[in-house]
Amino acid sequence: MTAMAEPEVGRARVRKEDERLIAGRTRWTDNITLPGMVHMALLRSPTAHARISAIDTSAAKEMPGVIAVYTGDDLDPGGEVGMPNAWPITPDQKTPRRPMLAQGTVNFAGEAVAAVIARSSAEAEDALAEIDVDYEDLPVVLGLDNAVADGAPLVHEDLGTNTSAEWIFDSAEAGSGGDVQQAISSSEVVVTRRFRQQRLVPAFMEPRSVVVDPTAPQLTMWSATQVPHILKTMVAMTLGLPEHQVRVIAPDVGGGFGGKLAVTPEECAAVVVAQKLGKPVKWTESRSETMVAAHHGRDQMQDITISASRDGTVTGLKVDLLADMGAYLGIVGGGVPVLGAFMFNAIYKIPAYRFSCTTVLTNTTLTDAYRGAGRPEATFGIERIMDELAAELGMDPMALREKNWIAHDEFPYTTVSTLTYDSGNYEAATAKAMQLFDYDGLRREQAERRERGDKVQLGIGISTFTEMCGLAPSRVLGSLDYGAGGWEHAAIRMLPTGKVEVVTGASPHGQGHETAWSQIVADQLGVGFDDIEILHGDTQSSHKGLDTYGSRSLTVGGIAVVKAAEKVIAKARTVAAHLMEAAEEDLEFADGTFTVRGTDTSTAIQDVALAVFAAHNLPDGVEPTLDSEAVFDPENFSFPHGTHLCATEVDTETGRVRLRSYVCVDDIGNVINPLIVEGQMHGGLAQGIAQALYEEAVYDEFGTLTSGTFADYLVPSAMDLPSFTTDRTETAATSNPLGVKGVGEAGTIASTPAVVNAVVDAVRHRGVQDIEMPLSPMRVWHAVHQGNAAAGTEGEAGGGLGSIDPAHGGAQ
Amino acid sequence: MIPAPFDYVAPSTVDEAVRALADAGEDAKVLAGGQSLLPVLRMRLAAPTTVVDLGKIGELTGVRDEGDAVVIGAMTTHYDVQRDPLVHDHALLLARATDTVADPQVRHRGTFGGSLAHADPAGDLLAPALALDAEMVIQGTGGRRTVSAAEFFQDFFTTSLAPEDILVEVRVPKHTGWAAHYEKFNRVAQAWSMVAVAATVRAEGGSIAEARIGLTNMASIPVRATAVEQALVGRPADAETIRAAAEHAADGTSPTVDGNADVEYRQHLAKVLTGRAVEAAMVG
Amino acid sequence: MRITVTVDGTGYTDDVEPRTLLVHHLREKLGKTGTVVGCDTSNCGACTVHLNGQSVKSCSVLAVQADGGEVNTVEGLARDGQLHPVQQAFRDNHALQCGFCTPGMIMQSIDLLADNPNPDEEAVREGLEGNLCRCTGYQNIVRAVRDAAGHMRPGAGPAAEQVADGERTTTGARGDV
């Protein structure tokens, strides 16, 4: 062996995954075609709340190519099957049963009512129109305040209430801080705001798809899912199937962002139908179906009170949330806002804190995890109200933050919400960001524009965020009544030729695990990056795992890989010592080679692998394998943080917002692959900015989603986003051996308040204290011209398909 | 999503196309570029029994010079209109507006005539056609006729085309040497215009000799801002003239309300964007 | 209805229903699953292919409209194991994450470079306005397209010659690459 190879960890490796993705040699679920496969199409309710008095499927059954038509009662005559909610946040949580296909009532527009199975997808779609459903309208429950009002009609009459659960954290009760009411009543300054977190659509690019093959004793399900392992277990439990006879494969999956963290009625229905027919069944949704039927995210009303002394020292924080769950609870459900409970106090030393959350059922598509899940909402709340407090105090908003944040020499620091932050350096990230941004220069320009009454006003927005990710220590999840643990599994197989297979329980859908895991293993075992293959997403090869969400893959799954590698090396050391006739403790391992200390006698790990394969000459009692596995359960979350600075230009004549510059300095600890990290930041920023400026799922008064296509739901294009300046500081996490923190959600969590703060800052001199998201030109213009009065208006769908009017001509 | 089944006819002449439409009756749809029609069919918001594809009719494509007018074949794609030298020289406003239509892929397929016949009030070519006094040449069972833009657009998605009519070509009077700008306002690049202003002006010796202003999405049909035109003509081509004239942009309009804009905001935008459009046209 | 379409250099004659969209014909009849469907409204651009030398959204073209035409997809770009410069640039610049929008992005990028061989950032963003990506925030896509432009300019090396080759109908149709 020559000189030390350059470490793989830290290199900007181009991704292994890309080779097939750029060539169209992909295996999306919808690409799969099996012999004898039939197609499922779903009839979805056009109405948000109704009793189903009759379903006539007879005409549909006569349509060409139709094999079967099923209603909810056909699939589940006993009415016993319900989609799982894995996180009952309180013991008395009200959890409505969510059937595969509606039974008795429909509870949101888009709920599936019947399934057509046909030879082709076109024929299946044709037959949907022939199903006759009689709906008796029920009162539609929309809007958080309406749903919890006295005498409100009920989404589920049998529950007797629209409130699913109330969850409270109080620092006085927990012993982690003072009494917030006392803090507020005795403080010099108190600021109260109500912020709305609009409803969003995750909008992964690949629509959901599932293929079920029931033709072997072990049923195989391909699904465009983030969570093949959870899906396998939950499908077995939900449908009463023997778990060992279910295999789930997540092939190439085109994005998820939490939106594919689900066990869906469509997946379960496909299984039941496939079993009934004994044929492979495929269901692939259209985008229009995704929009109404896949879960949404956010949708909270936040009432926040912050108190402080005149010098800017924060004394208390009180948060009351209403969270719209939609018509049912998803797999995480009420847990999403509860995750936010720990993040409202953010990077600040807050002596008294109280958080309450009421989860509410309405006649809308259900909400569940969407990139950040609870933490963006909390970060928005605190970072927005810190700006409002600064304005009230007449302080520079950054100075206010600095006065209250945890100093770098105070780590580890246990917060008022009981989390212990292991590491961080807010000063360093902020200093770097301020310098890259030219904070002082932009403040000067802002003053000049105000001075001369420029029609384009400049605003500066700050978000100094942290978040908890790497979900999660199993004992913490247990204490929060989550239904599973938070560990992750990995296994390493040393092949006879010295090549390596790494099995991971994480389930990538765009993140680049194949590349990052290869880098980690290359360094650990001293084998070549290209000699490593990562196996994932198939419960047959990767039998154990808890999948990918909550920025957990690296900080939990990646550490499991390290632990498995350590075991491989330990096994190899025993064999290498035997082969070289040396004592184990005399061996050094570096760069893939065991060397007898002080000699030039050495053997490569690949040679050990071959010797173990032959098994001719092993020490007594040693198994002929180096293969090893590990399950890692983290002791703590990871706490990435960063300082995001946004400058916006607000055209006061039109209300149009332009992002002038966006600078962020993130601290995600040590970095495995800077290219991937930068990509995660960019994409995260885009989604957070889109929440601030563009996106909203809008319902009309009847509960119809009016932003139900990409023509109305405004996912930004390249034209609508700026270039970002991203940089990093590196404060290694102390909670894991790689010193890494999660990065997948950071950009989304941090960016939304930075943008809104910047817009409000640009027009605060016009009497504006808040503008409801998304900050559409009309909302901004009304805010500027009428002060705060009209800042919150009706929700707005986007541009619309425009072109569509079936009643009229104009076809050309 | 897959369209409902239909019969497909691809005639090779306009006569055949008219006959095919007449034969097929009310439930036929004309397919030009298909960039609006196909999404409608996929969403099954329309389910024609017959689709008559004009794509094989060569005579419908191209731009030609006819003395005092530029004549644009109805099936000429946006991409070709954008790049056509005759359009640039004599109907610059049309080129500018076409630049803003949809996206490059759609402009490769979508057609000038198709957009006009579709008559979406948020469509970007209606107001320029109106402002330029374009004339629609229509062929139906009774032969050819010519209809002014002002008569052609009748309501949301409704024109004076009868079910068996084909829009054959559009005669655009030459506006040689006129400055032009299309000021489009939407929430994201892909979105339809909330409001847009089509402005073309001819300056002479420092003052405005002629002006044509059309408004997009300020009514169910494109609107001509005649009060603005009158306030511009004969006055010095300066900021004060433009500002004062633009104040009239919303005169007499009663725009529709949607989630993006209420009446007050839409009328306000019309004024601001009119000022900007005229100013940008003058600057070139 | 019987149609003949040349896809990635191979001629295919098939009976199709008139309502069949070109993208479904490619995916379901011809097995060209490299081209994908992301929406119903022609907003996302994931289905972008080249039809007779121009980028189109194959979800908004009927298969029968492509009769007699030439279609090129992302699957036909690489030649003799060598990636197209745009493919290579997407990889080098980490211009994709989940990769679902990538076939459409690459096909549209090639088209925009054919129209404008040396685009600035703004021109790239404009040229891609009909293609949505949910993962990358577009920054690396823009970088990749500009990087590819450098490799595709005449004289920039073998890759450029390959692309300028008259047989490369996907990129050379307008002869201005």
UniProtKB/TrEMBL annotation, chain A:
<dbReference type="InterPro" id="IPR036856">
    <property type="entry name" value="Ald_Oxase/Xan_DH_a/b_sf"/>
</dbReference>
<dbReference type="InterPro" id="IPR008274">
    <property type="entry name" value="AldOxase/xan_DH_MoCoBD1"/>
</dbReference>
<feature type="domain" description="Aldehyde oxidase/xanthine dehydrogenase a/b hammerhead">
    <location>
        <begin position="23"/>
        <end position="139"/>
    </location>
</feature>
<dbReference type="Pfam" id="PF20256">
    <property type="entry name" value="MoCoBD_2"/>
</dbReference>
<dbReference type="Pfam" id="PF02738">
    <property type="entry name" value="MoCoBD_1"/>
</dbReference>
<keyword id="KW-0560">Oxidoreductase</keyword>
<dbReference type="InterPro" id="IPR037165">
    <property type="entry name" value="AldOxase/xan_DH_Mopterin-bd_sf"/>
</dbReference>
<protein>
    <submittedName>
        <fullName>Molybdopterin-dependent oxidoreductase</fullName>
    </submittedName>
</protein>
<dbReference type="Pfam" id="PF01315">
    <property type="entry name" value="Ald_Xan_dh_C"/>
</dbReference>
<dbReference type="InterPro" id="IPR016208">
    <property type="entry name" value="Ald_Oxase/xanthine_DH-like"/>
</dbReference>
<keyword id="KW-0500">Molybdenum</keyword>
<dbReference type="InterPro" id="IPR000674">
    <property type="entry name" value="Ald_Oxase/Xan_DH_a/b"/>
</dbReference>
<dbReference type="InterPro" id="IPR046867">
    <property type="entry name" value="AldOxase/xan_DH_MoCoBD2"/>
</dbReference>
<feature type="region of interest" description="Disordered">
    <location>
        <begin position="790"/>
        <end position="812"/>
    </location>
</feature>
UniProtKB/TrEMBL annotation, chain B:
<keyword id="KW-0274">FAD</keyword>
<dbReference type="InterPro" id="IPR036318">
    <property type="entry name" value="FAD-bd_PCMH-like_sf"/>
</dbReference>
<keyword id="KW-0285">Flavoprotein</keyword>
<dbReference type="InterPro" id="IPR016167">
    <property type="entry name" value="FAD-bd_PCMH_sub1"/>
</dbReference>
<dbReference type="Pfam" id="PF03450">
    <property type="entry name" value="CO_deh_flav_C"/>
</dbReference>
<dbReference type="Pfam" id="PF00941">
    <property type="entry name" value="FAD_binding_5"/>
</dbReference>
<dbReference type="InterPro" id="IPR036683">
    <property type="entry name" value="CO_DH_flav_C_dom_sf"/>
</dbReference>
<keyword id="KW-0560">Oxidoreductase</keyword>
<feature type="domain" description="FAD-binding PCMH-type">
    <location>
        <begin position="1"/>
        <end position="177"/>
    </location>
</feature>
<protein>
    <submittedName>
        <fullName>Xanthine dehydrogenase family protein subunit M</fullName>
    </submittedName>
</protein>
<dbReference type="InterPro" id="IPR002346">
    <property type="entry name" value="Mopterin_DH_FAD-bd"/>
</dbReference>
<dbReference type="InterPro" id="IPR016166">
    <property type="entry name" value="FAD-bd_PCMH"/>
</dbReference>
<dbReference type="InterPro" id="IPR016169">
    <property type="entry name" value="FAD-bd_PCMH_sub2"/>
</dbReference>
<dbReference type="InterPro" id="IPR005107">
    <property type="entry name" value="CO_DH_flav_C"/>
</dbReference>
<dbReference type="InterPro" id="IPR051312">
    <property type="entry name" value="Diverse_Substr_Oxidored"/>
</dbReference>
Automatic annotation (TrEMBL), chain C:
<dbReference type="InterPro" id="IPR001041">
    <property type="entry name" value="2Fe-2S_ferredoxin-type"/>
</dbReference>
<feature type="domain" description="2Fe-2S ferredoxin-type">
    <location>
        <begin position="1"/>
        <end position="77"/>
    </location>
</feature>
<keyword id="KW-0411">Iron-sulfur</keyword>
<keyword id="KW-0408">Iron</keyword>
<dbReference type="Pfam" id="PF00111">
    <property type="entry name" value="Fer2"/>
</dbReference>
<keyword id="KW-0560">Oxidoreductase</keyword>
<dbReference type="InterPro" id="IPR051452">
    <property type="entry name" value="Diverse_Oxidoreductases"/>
</dbReference>
<dbReference type="InterPro" id="IPR012675">
    <property type="entry name" value="Beta-grasp_dom_sf"/>
</dbReference>
<protein>
    <submittedName>
        <fullName>(2Fe-2S)-binding protein</fullName>
    </submittedName>
</protein>
<dbReference type="InterPro" id="IPR036884">
    <property type="entry name" value="2Fe-2S-bd_dom_sf"/>
</dbReference>
<dbReference type="Pfam" id="PF01799">
    <property type="entry name" value="Fer2_2"/>
</dbReference>
<keyword id="KW-0479">Metal-binding</keyword>
<feature type="region of interest" description="Disordered">
    <location>
        <begin position="151"/>
        <end position="177"/>
    </location>
</feature>
<keyword id="KW-0001">2Fe-2S</keyword>
<dbReference type="InterPro" id="IPR002888">
    <property type="entry name" value="2Fe-2S-bd"/>
</dbReference>
